[in-house]
Amino acid sequence: MSRIIYVNGHYRRYGEAGVHVEDRGLQFADSVYEVIEIYNTQLIDPTRHLDRLERSMNELSISPPMSRSALSHIIEQTVRRNRVHNGIVYLQVTRGTAPRDFPINGKDLSPTLICIARATSRSARDSIAAKGISVVTVPDIRWGRCDIKTVMLLPAVLAKSSAHQAGASEAWLVDTDGWITEGASSNAWILNQDNELQTRSLSHALLPGITRQTLIEVAGKTGIRVVEQAFNAEQAYTAKEAFNTSASATIMPVVRIDEQSIGSGTPGPITQKLRQVFHHHAERIPASARPAKY
Ligand code: PMP
Question: Whole-angstrom Cα distance, residue 120 to residue 84?
Answer without folding.
Answer: 8
